[in-house]
Structure to design on (233 residues):
């Protein structure tokens, strides 16, 4: 999903790994006892803002059509890739050095592992991520989720617990159509998108506001049309 995400994470100072987290192979170990809590606070605060972030070698980012992790697992050199991300908030929740617990709000696509790795570089002792939990992924909060055990314990309540597909797109404009046009959408036909500009997105609704499709405006034959991105009906 597009939009901001909030993570609660943990890191440990004094080491680095090839994956930037504790599950990877250790690539270095360094003393951390010269690092003060105030140093960590400043380093975490420095995450905030827009930045070019280094993409981990063990990631799904593509190079010539192949995920980087496939190249890394084969022992091949992976190209250094960067992407622009924005960190709107970052704060230390608690720390008992060398362990640090933090919360961070990031733009879609940001790698929290890379933030931890950069902190280790800044402090000069290395750092790896040891745990992470996503608390928010626009527009959903973790407290809206239901555990598998709860769902299995009360299967009759499943329908009321399942959110409608349209709930995943709260910021997309709604475009409503009558029954005839709704039938055309169901057949994948492109409908008139007068007033839209190329790239605009919308949720197409039928009679009764039933979601039909997620669509994007494209120019075709000199007119704007809604092209179906994903059918929802």
């Amino acid at each position: 999903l597009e939009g901001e995400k909030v993570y609660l994470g943990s890191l440990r100072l004094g080491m680095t790994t090839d994956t930037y987290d504790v599950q990877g192979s250790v690539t270095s170990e360094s003393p951390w006892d010269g690092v003060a809590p105030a140093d960590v606070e400043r380093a975490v605060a420095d995450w905030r803002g827009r930045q070019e972030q280094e993409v981990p070698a063990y990631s799904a980012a593509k190079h010539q059509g192949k995920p980087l992790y496939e190249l890394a697992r084969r022992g091949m050199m992976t190209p250094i890739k960067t992407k622009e991300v924005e960190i709107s908030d970052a704060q230390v929740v608690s720390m008992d050095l060398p362990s640090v617990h933090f919360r961070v709000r990031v733009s879609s696509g940001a790698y929290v592992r890379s933030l931890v790795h950069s902190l280790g570089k800044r402090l000069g002792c290395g750092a790896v991520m040891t745990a992470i939990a996503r608390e928010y992924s626009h527009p959903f909060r973790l407290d809206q989720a239901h555990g598998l055990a709860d769902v299995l314990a009360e299967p009759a309540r499943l329908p009321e617990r399942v959110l409608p597909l349209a709930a995943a797109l709260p910021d997309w404009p709604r475009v409503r159509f009558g029954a005839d046009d709704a039938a055309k959408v169901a057949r994948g036909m492109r409908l008139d998108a007068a007033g839209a500009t190329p790239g605009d997105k919308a949720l197409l609704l039928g009679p009764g506001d039933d979601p039909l499709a997620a669509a994007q405006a494209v120019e075709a034959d000199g007119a704007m049309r809604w092209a179906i991105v994903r059918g929802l009906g």
Observations:
- The two ends are 20 Å apart (CA to CA).
- The CA atoms of residues 4 and 177 lie 31 Å apart.
